Amino acid sequence: LTDFWLLCPRGRFYKPDYTPCNSPVNGKKCIQECGIDSSVLERYKKAEDIFYSMDRIIAPSRFIIKVFENNGWKKEITLVRHGFEYTCVKRVNKPVREDGSVVFGYTGLLTKFKGVELLIESFKRVKNDKLSLLIYGDVYNEWVWERAFNYNITRSAEADKRIRFMGKYTHDDLSKIFNTIDINIVPSTTLESYGLVVTESLSHNVPVIVSDVVGSAYEYV
């Protein structure tokens, strides 16, 4: 179980307005609050059958296990953390900047449920010329609304020269990226099932600030 797909058709437990959901109520809440047709009731039943037909179930975080338990799916789930290739980590000791400046970072998808919009608007409210924000990543896919979201957040940051969009990156770029930022931010507004970005950051000795809905992040911070 790497997400909440069996429980939630969206996979991440969020409503159409991107506010968090805590339970599908056997699919009834999907109909009432998300506007999904009644076929979701049959979907829920099939998902439950799949869950109970497994000989062994594993999950990468205690948070995923807790969500399934809280929704009444009572079958043993074994915790097996995702691995990380630490041999790829190239740490560079960053000197403290004499001018007292601090570089914040964001690494990941540029999509609404990741909270990038919230991060930008929050950062703009902090009036301090010694702070900067580097945003690494690209849109989730080529869907029109994803591109529109990317355009909107780019426009909203234009007036603040402290914010820079750094574009796409690959796994091989991680060490270079984390040697340019002092603190990484994980501002997700919907449930995160495991903390890959958190793990990547901490492996490079870069501390993280996480939002209080990133359930699994508490297991790493």
Write the topology of this structure:
Elements: H1 28-34, H2 39-53, E1 58-59, H3 62-70, E2 78-79, E3 102-107, H4 116-125, E4 131-136, H5 144-157, E5 163-167, H6 174-178, E6 183-186, H7 196-203, E7 208-210
Parallel strand pairs: 1-2, 3-4, 3-6, 4-5, 6-7
Brief synopsis:
The protein is an alpha/beta fold and 221 residues long. It has helices at residues 28-34, 39-53, 62-70, 116-125, 144-157, 174-178, 196-203; strands spanning 58-59, 78-79, 102-107, 131-136, 163-167, 183-186, 208-210.
For the terminal residues, how far apart are their CA atoms? 22 Å
Percent of residues in beta strands: 5-15%
The total strand number stands at: 7
Which structural class best describes the helix and strand composition? alpha/beta
Helix content: 25-40%
- Which regions are unreliable across 5 or more consecutive residues at pLDDT < 50? none
Shape: globular
Q: What is the helix tally? A: 7
Strand order of the largest sheet: 5-4-3-6-7
Mean pLDDT: 89
Provide the gyration radius in Å.
19 Å
Largest sheet: 5 strands, parallel
How do the helices and strands follow one another from N- to C-terminus?
A: HHEHEEHEHEHEHE
